Amino acid sequence: MAPFVALGRNEPAAPLRSALIRRASQGYLNCLRGRRRPLSFVLAKIQLLWWMLILDQCYRSLTSSGKTGDPFSLTRNPNGRVLVARAMGGIGDLLMMEPGLEANAIRYRQPVDFAIPRKFFPIFEHNPHVNLIDIDGPPIDISTYRRFFNLSQCPATRYESPRVPEIKKGRVETFAQGMQVSRNRLLKQGWRINHFLSTDDEIFCDDFLKRHGIGKAGGGKRPLVGVQPFSRDSYKDHPNIAEMIRAIAKDNDVLIFHHVANGLPEGEGIVTTAGLPLGHSLALVSRIEAMVSVDSAFLHAASAFDVPVVALFGPTDARTLTRHHRRVKTLWRQDNFACVPCWRNEDKACAVSGLRSVSPCMAAIRTDEVLSALGEMLAT
Fold first, then answer.
1. Are 226 and 285 spatial neighbours (Cβ–Cβ below 8 Å)?
2. What's the whole-model pTM score?
3. For residues 350 and 344, is the Cβ–Cβ distance under 8 A?
4. Does the CA dihedral 191-192-193-196 come out positive or negative?
5. pLDDT for 200-234, tens place per residue?
6. Is the pLDDT of residue 8 over 90?
7. SS3 content of the chain, % helix, strand, coil (to 5)
8. Residue 195 and residue 301 in contact, taking contact as beta carbons nearer than 8 Å
9. In the chain, where does DSSP find H-type helix?
10. Long-range contacts: 240-248, Cβ < 8 Å, 24+?
């Protein structure tokens, strides 16, 4: 409603109408968060209808002034395409949106227009189910579309926030639901994150591996194992990840997926993707034989190429966040920590240690366990 408010701000009724729109919008969003008790659920639905009625009247007041119109029209073109918008990252969330985007493209038999920041274009650059639009570019006329889904109002967060720690749905499912993709359509799609490589991507991967002499494809004799050592959130990290990388590198070549090399182990058979464009880093996932990862983006990138994964989990739920993986072994200290998963964040201290960074449940995962699990996944 914000563009309508801006266009009609010089009218006498503007201050009252703007206040009503702000109040009704906040009430509407509060109702969308949902309630657990049946009575609260019914009351929330009644309140939702009330706020929708107020917003409808405000919209009618704005349109009657004749000052509103495209590209902010709320009308729809029944023969148009589907538009999905996401104003922010992260990479992992965008990857987990792919099954829902693909299901919509198949349903309507045409690619989905996906408006995201340009820096994330490499995630979908060669995807035939997606037509990319720079969300920071020219205004988008939503009246030309049959459906518009705004994932910037994150459906995963709306689902998870009131249910912590009893979260049962993974983000692939909640993002798909945010695009009105039913569970049946998602099942038909296979919950599969698909990532498509170009010929240039393939050539780059071949050259990169040969230049560094890692992996059997690069002329080496050892398996190539990928490691994503860090998440964007430090409470998901393992404090002894450097030790794990050195241990893995004794019998395998290691490709570290991280944007900077400082502070990471170095040596023969250890290479990093630091400095590479996002698209090239994602393409290299297709060439590894297994991945060891914390709860972060390249855990989901590995799923796109059916790469076996050893996933290190602590505060977040290993079951729900790896449900779309077909070849995953999770290391999770739920047996030692009754609070796992707590779903805490960077602003909430650990209930056990009182720290906002390192999580004891992550630190409890031993290097020998990781090596054993990796051996299993390489053997599959």
1. yes
2. 0.82
3. yes
4. negative
5. 999 999 999 999 999 988 888 899 999 999 998 89
6. no
7. 45, 10, 45
8. yes
9. 2-7, 14-32, 38-64, 91-108, 155-160, 171-178, 183-189, 199-212, 241-248, 278-284, 297-304, 318-321, 360-363, 367-379
10. 240/363, 240/367, 241/294, 243/367, 244/292, 244/367, 244/370, 245/270, 247/367, 247/370, 247/371, 248/292, 248/370, 248/371, 248/374
Does position 22 have pLDDT exceeding 90, yes or no? no
> Do 48 and 28 form a contact (C-beta atoms < 8 A)?
yes
Specify the pLDDT at position 36.
54
First CA to last CA distance, the chain: 53
d(CA 350, CA 78): 50
Paired strand residues for 134: 116
- Exposed/middle/buried for residue 140 (C-beta within 10 Å: 0-12, 13-18, 19+): middle
Q: Copy the structure tokens of residue 189.
A: 């799609």
Query: What single letter denotes the amino acid at residue 145?
Result: Y
Contact between 94 and 120 under an 8 Å Cβ cutoff? The reply is yes
DSSP 355: -
AA identity, residue 105 = A
Q: Which residues contact 353 (CB under 8 A, 6 or more apart)?
A: 359, 360
In angstroms, the CA 152 to CA 117 distance is 12
Q: pLDDT at position 347, please? A: 84
Q: Residues 281, 242, 329, CA angle at the centre, nearest 5°?
A: 70
HEC secondary structure over 168-201:
CCCHHHHHHHHCCCCHHHHHHHCCCCCCCCCHHH
DSSP code, position 235: G
Interior/surface letters 43-82, b for 16+ CB within 10 angstroms, e for the rest: ebeeeeeebeebbeebbebbeeeeebeeebeeeeeeebbb
